Amino acid sequence: MSPWRRTLSLAVIVAEYHPQELDRKWQAHWADTRAFEVTEDPSKPKFYCLEMFAYPSGHAHVGHVRNYIIGDVVSRLKRLQGFNVLHPFGWDAFGLPAENAAIKNGIHPETSTLANIAHMKGQLQRLGISYAWGRELATCLPDYYRWNQWLFTRMFERGLAYRRRSTVNWCPSCNTVLANEQVIDGACWRCGSQVTQKDLEQWFFKITHYADDLLVAADGLAKWPEKVLTMQRNWIGRSEGARIRFPIQGANDSIEVFTTRIDTIFGATFMLLAPEHGLVSRFAKESEDEPAFLAKAQKYRAQDRAGRLTGEVEKEGFFTGRFAINPYTGLPIPICIANYVLGEYGTGAVMGVPAHDDRDREFATKYGLEIKPVVVARDGSPAGAATDDCVLVESGDYSGMPADAARQAITEDAEERGIGHGTVQFRLKDWGISRQRYWGTPIPMMHCPVDGIVPVPDDQLPVQLPKVMEFTGRGDSPLAGVPEFVNVTCPKCGGPAKRETDTMDTFVDSSWYFYRFADAQNDQLPFDPKKVGYWCPVDFYSGGVEHAILHLIYSRFFARVFHDLGMVEHTEPFTHLLTQGMVLKDGAVMSKSKGNVVDPDSMIQKYGSDALRLYVMFVAPPEKEVEWTDSGLEGSFRFLARVWRAADQWATEGAASSDTKAAAGTHATTRTAIDHGALTSAERALRRKTHDTIKRVTNDIDARQQMNTAVSAMMELVNELYAFAEKGERSAQAPRVAREAIEALIVMLSPFAPHTMEELWQIYGHADGLRAARWPVFDAEVAKAEELEIPVQVNGKLRAVVTVAPGVENPELERIALAEPNVQAHIAGKTIKKVVIVKGKLVSVVV
RNA sequence: GCCGGGGUGGCGAAACUGGCAGACGCACAGGACUUAAAAUCCUGAGAGGGUCACCCCCUCGUGCGGGUUCGAUUCCCGCCCCCGGCACCA
Asked: What is the ipTM of this complex?
């Protein structure tokens, strides 16, 4: 008969593990006591834990939910460690799906969005996520988006928000403009449609103002994944170089190029213009056959876009009939239009240096243009595109100069001659935020025939979305069709004016919501700088890596804007970033269309929320992708049931034990100090395991952030408890020793399985709940090993393991090791050259 | 092409500072309990071999090939493959 059966028959508190009842009980308790609401408390260290807020699509699947569980485990841990923890949640509630649904089924986006929020909030509550719901926000409510408008106006006043006509990315399916960051492989980030180009008047945020700082400061983000930083660095794309003008032969003007290799300028044997370059139409006019000229340029423009999608298009170009003068050789070089020169980068024109640029070489070879090497390796061999240890040749006065030095010298010379200057070029472009849609923040601007662009005065904010709308899906701004919205009075001249009818990109909403959580009810300002000063920056932020160059770069930008407005002291909003891996099902990302979503509610119904939470944390480190398995979840459920039974048994044995103090029935008495010296060796071993587990779990969670190994350490402790109950020799103190293990286990496991552990904690007599509990304290004395197992190697191969007392001296250890029969067998007939002893670790014999 | 991450049992993974590779879990197998099943508890297990009566012992083994070291999943050099990002950025 198992020990469990034996004790169950005597049990005072017998309860089977029914997690669903515990879920209900403790979720109600947390809600009733407003357990996770917090205020600023200068006496405590603060911890701001945040998961990327959610788009209210209607249903969260376990892939989404993983992120919230990760954040919740961190939050609950930090509370146990004495931090004042802010853990809020909200809704990224504007966006196209709701509006598209409205076009289809006539339900107003606000109605469907609020219904979706209600359902998803219920899902999160059923998981027992410890949010401060009092701070909940939804970006689609005027309380929130008025501050988008307020901030937009501040940015407009500072020139950080501006309007210009430009070629923009257009998604024909979403009927709106997209920012560069929102075009993935030439397709819309949201719906996957092929993006086309359009010329439109658009509002932009001047993120390029901070390009250099965003890049440099990335080096200081020590707790961000390298992957994300690399992506941001690539996206910002800084290159140092020079701009230099080449005169056009037979004309008064010149063409400016950007180059990072001005040291190769003596090898520039042709010049290339992008098909979009401003001079194309002029050269076309001056050519013999203008329509043919323009047709070819136009072909490249179209081709260029296609080329970017498929990767490779053969380099192609044609001669304009005009020449430029290389300002260093003084020689005329042909000006060509080429399909591989980008209009939007640098000056849209480049000097062709075929000897030192692979693309130019390909082009020159195809058209028979001159290839003139001007940089060679020190030994005189061809340098190609390399620069290290290279010197210039055939470069006038610069011949013989190292390439690096020449870059500087020629740049300085160009500056003196007034034909160029050193400069830094970024790939990052300003953020186009106008969207020709309804379900977003109205841009708080007016167009007055007298005063031009006029911001809506602050006291007229928010500019509210008109409620009554018909959604037609026609491809222009829906707000333009609402006269009551459009027609306004100019606050400057009092004359009639028109409202801006575009709305803001929803990424504006998400670029600062983490500040609003620090002061979610403020109706005077987006937030009180003092409150943000207490809570921010966010200490732990987790979400999907897909936002690496979207939300995460925009938020860094906004932090700088708020900083320059004097509202926040920091410039980096997120100290520690974790990008959680996706949950796959049948090898694919979960999605409704694939029909492979796992619904958290049905899992909770079957196994309880704690099993789901524990499984998600145990299956792999949080940043790793995982494959969902039902059997894995079942394993976590089994573990919790195992903990439950062990706790139940020892609660019973503690109460029914022959130990007189314990028999008095109060749990407090069984928590009196353990007389360690009087324990059996099995009891000492269990205590050792208990304290060893405390140490491992604490270290795994704090220093290593490896939740999965923390859980496995606790599983080992439970296995040990079972072994002790099964066959451990017991003294009268056995219940106390077991209780010590179980109470430590309850507290350490509570971030992962809070409902079950609250219940057990209560059963163990702690009336004030886990919120009053403290993280268990590791006792090195108790954890000290009574004997050590030392591996013995001969020539690097394991030959024996010897058991010795800790603190054994090296000569003695060597003697014991060499006495091992199997060691003797392997050194027989050979001379010992060396014995390496790592104290307390190993003996290595070399023969 | 460039950048980042990775490659360990049937599977998810672990090994912290160069020191017993595979902890913990899943799946599997055997046993106990049961009329039976489920549940539960216990036991086993990298591959191959020796002695197979047991204890045990040997060889190989962390993508591949080298190197450093008494000792390498860990460090160095050179490759291969997978995932992710960027990609004609002058």
From this structure: 0.94
Task: Show Cβ contacts of residue A354 under 8 Å, excluding neighbours closer than 6 positions.
Answer: A267, A269, A270, A360, A361, A363, A364, A365, A369, A370, A371, A372
CB A169 within 8 A of CB A180: yes
User: Is residue A619 classed exposed, middle or buried when 0-12, 13-18 and 19+ CB atoms within 10 A define those classes?
Assistant: buried
A617-620 LR contacts (CB < 8 Å, sep 24+): A617/A69, A617/A70, A617/A73, A617/A707, A617/A708, A617/A711, A617/A752, A618/A707, A618/A708, A618/A711, A618/A712, A619/A708, A620/A581, A620/A708
- The answer to whether A701 and A77 are in contact (CB under 8 A) is yes
User: Where on the phi/psi map is residue A815: left (φ > 0), alpha (ψ -120 to 50), or beta?
Assistant: alpha
DSSP letter, residue A267:
G
| Residue A188 parent element (H or E) | strand A187-188
Name the residue closest to B5, CA to C1'.
Answer: A227
Instruction: Return the DSSP state at A136.
Output: -
* Nucleic chain B contacts, protein chain A, residues 91-110, CB cut-off 7 A: none
- Joined tokens for residue A804: 């010795």
Q: What is the pLDDT of residue A659?
A: 43
Any atom of strand B under 7 A from CB of A706? yes
Chain A residues 733-762, Cβ below 7 A from strand B: none
Tell me which residues from 574 to 633 on chain A have a beta carbon below 7 angstroms from nucleic acid strand B: 618-621, 624-627, 629, 631-632
Q: Distance between CA atoms of A223 and A529, rounded to whole angstroms? A: 25
Handedness of CA A497, A503, A509, A511 (dihedral sign): negative
Distance from C-alpha of A839 to C-alpha of A800, rounded to nearest angstrom = 17
- A73: closest CA among A609, A617, A600? A617
Protein-contacted bases of chain B (C-beta within 7 A): 3-5, 11-16, 19-21, 23-27, 33, 39-43, 56-59, 70-72, 84-90
Closest among A267, A425, A242, A240 to A356, alpha carbons compared:
A267
DSSP class of residue A538? B
pTM (predicted TM-score): 0.91
- Give the helix ranges, DSSP H, for A420-492: 483-486
Q: Is the CB of A357 under 7 A from strand B?
A: yes
Minimum CA–C1' distance nucleotide for A347? B90
Nucleotide lying nearest to A721, CA to C1' measure: B41
Compute the distance between CA of residue A796 and CA of residue A152 in angstroms, rounded to an integer: 68
- Which tokens go with A661? 């103090």
Distance CA A133, CA A90 (A): 9
**Bridge partners for A460 per DSSP:** none
What the block records as the tokens of A604 is 């909770």
Q: Give CA–CA dist A511/A235, Å, rounded.
A: 18
Scanning every strand, the nucleotide with its C1' closest to A789's CA turns out to be B20
Can you say how many angstroms the Cα of residue A409 is from the centroid of all Cα atoms in its chain?
A: 42
Whether any strand B atom is under 7 angstroms from the Cβ of A844: the reply reads: yes
For chain A, how big is the Rg over CA atoms in Å?
35
For residue A655, the surrounding DSSP H or E stretch is helix A630-656
Question: Are A786 and A689 a contacting pair, CB within 8 Å?
Answer: no
- Mean pLDDT by groups of 10 residues along chain A of 847 residues: 34 67 96 96 95 93 92 94 96 91 89 96 97 97 97 97 86 80 75 78 93 91 88 89 94 93 94 92 91 89 60 82 95 94 89 91 92 88 78 92 92 95 91 91 96 95 88 78 92 94 94 97 96 96 88 95 97 93 84 84 94 94 89 94 92 56 38 79 92 93 87 96 88 90 96 96 92 91 86 88 85 87 84 86 87
